[in-house]
Each structure stands twice: as C-alpha cells, then as structure tokens.
Design brief:
With 96 residues, the protein is mainly β. The chain is built from no helices and 8 strands. A 5-stranded antiparallel beta sheet has the order 1-5-2-3-4, with no helix packed on it.
C-alpha cells in the first residue's frame, strides 16, 4: 500500500488508519470529520500535523485467544482491545 497525502484525500470518518506526521512519526489514528481532527490510539503521540495516511491491513486471525506476557494488576477483568492492547476494566491499566 502507498501513503495518501491528506491534502489529496482524507479517510472515511472514524476509520482507523496508519498516519504519519510532518517529522515522520507514525501511529494509528482515526479522523473525525465533525471536529476536523485526528484521534490517536497512542496516548503518547498527538497527531496534530498528520500529513499522510494509509489503510491498515486486516489483523491475523488466531485459533485461540492471545495470552499477555505480563499482568499489570491483580484484577481478573482484563480484555484485549481492537487495537491489540490489553486493558483492565477495573483500574484502567494497559499493557502490551
């Protein structure tokens, strides 16, 4: 797949895509047409100057659920988000 310049075309509203900013940092984000802004899955990266984007590939399918490498808390209510990040429903801690 090739990068698409934001000046040429924007992704569909709310569609998660791979984005790149003006200095080459990449993240997964979705574009909100109502607010005219990007929303990143990465809390450490703010995609305010996205210049290019490309569709994400479909994720691989697993025959059985994925297991996390380490558990960040003692709660049992932990789930895998669509982004591939594990999160505790009780305390909100995330881990990879």
């Amino acid at each position: 797949m090739k990068w698409i310049a934001c000046k040429d075309q924007m992704p569909k509203d709310g569609k998660r895509v791979l984005v790149c900013n003006e200095i080459g940092i990449k993240s997964v984000a979705s574009y909100d047409t109502y607010y005219n802004e990007w929303n990143s899955d990465d809390s450490f990266w703010w995609p305010r100057e996205v210049t290019h984007w490309m569709p994400l590939h479909d994720p691989p399918t697993a025959a059985k659920p994925l297991l996390a490498a380490a558990v960040p808390c003692s709660h049992e209510d932990i789930y895998l988000r669509k982004s591939g990040i594990w999160k505790c429903k009780q305390c909100g801690k995330v881990f990879y």
